[in-house]
From TrEMBL:
CDD domains: TMP_TenI (cd00564). Residues 9-172 form the Thiamine phosphate synthase/TenI domain. This is Thiamine phosphate synthase. It comes from Rhodobacter flavimaris. The lineage of its organism: Bacteria, Pseudomonadati, Pseudomonadota, Alphaproteobacteria, Rhodobacterales. It holds the Pfam family TMP-TENI. InterPro entries: Aldolase_TIM, ThiamineP_synth_sf, ThiamineP_synth_TenI. The keyword RNA-binding does not apply.
Length: 206
């Protein structure tokens, strides 16, 4: 049985992957560890590629009884039997997504390092808010979502929070008491054995 006080796992797919390889890799990870949700986060704007990936990942996710959300593509949620959408523009699209998908769908919002955006997203009906990156990254502005943000959020706000972006074992250990989920992506997919890499992150939660 999982530790109820331990953050849950939220897997983020690579920005691109081989459909002949990744579904089996994902299935192996889901078979080894309990995961709450998967985010299909593709960089491509090729509609056919996104739809084929959505179908392939949905089959694996639902076989393991794991929810699957897709990044930004609201129109594909119902069409491909997905569980919801993850929005990357803070609170701006939350109300529209909720209206389009209904109350049963998952609507999440990435709010960078902004407490204000996170609060607005929660008030607009987001099921969860994610902040990041929590670790050092050469991408974006270089600003990080620090421990204080998660500590304040977990104490003051009921909406579940996800910590993601450039996670390390040390950061996972420090943030585990103040986050509901860890969003894990390249931290494991870049490793030779993603399931083992995820196991190491889980162990770091304590």
């Amino acid at each position: 049985m999982p530790d109820q006080d331990r953050p849950q796992l939220y897997l983020v797919t690579p920005p691109s992957f081989d459909l002949d390889v990744f579904p089996n890799l994902l299935s192996g990870v889901l078979g080894a560890h309990e995961v709450a949700c998967i985010r299909l986060a593709l960089a491509t704007r090729d509609e056919d590629a996104v739809m084929r990936a959505a179908d392939a990942v949905r089959l694996v996710a639902h076989e393991h009884d794991v929810a699957l959300v897709i990044e930004n593509h609201i129109q594909l949620v119902e069409r491909h039997g997905l569980d919801g959408v993850h929005l990357t523009d803070g609170a701006r699209s939350v109300r529209a997504a909720r209206k389009a998908l209904g109350q049963d769908a998952i609507v999440g919002a990435f709010c960078g390092t902004s407490r204000h955006d996170g609060m607005n997203a929660g008030e607009a009906g987001a099921d969860y808010v994610s902040f990041g990156p929590v670790g050092e990254s050469g991408l974006g502005s270089g600003e990080r979502a620090g421990h204080d943000l998660f500590a304040w959020w977990s104490e003051m706000i009921e909406v579940p929070v996800v910590a993601e972006g450039a996670l390390t074992l040390d950061l996972v250990c420090k943030l585990a008491p103040v986050t509901d989920f860890f969003g894990v992506g390249e931290e494991i997919w870049s490793q030779d054995d993603p399931a083992a890499a995820l196991g190491s992150l889980i162990a770091a939660m304590g």
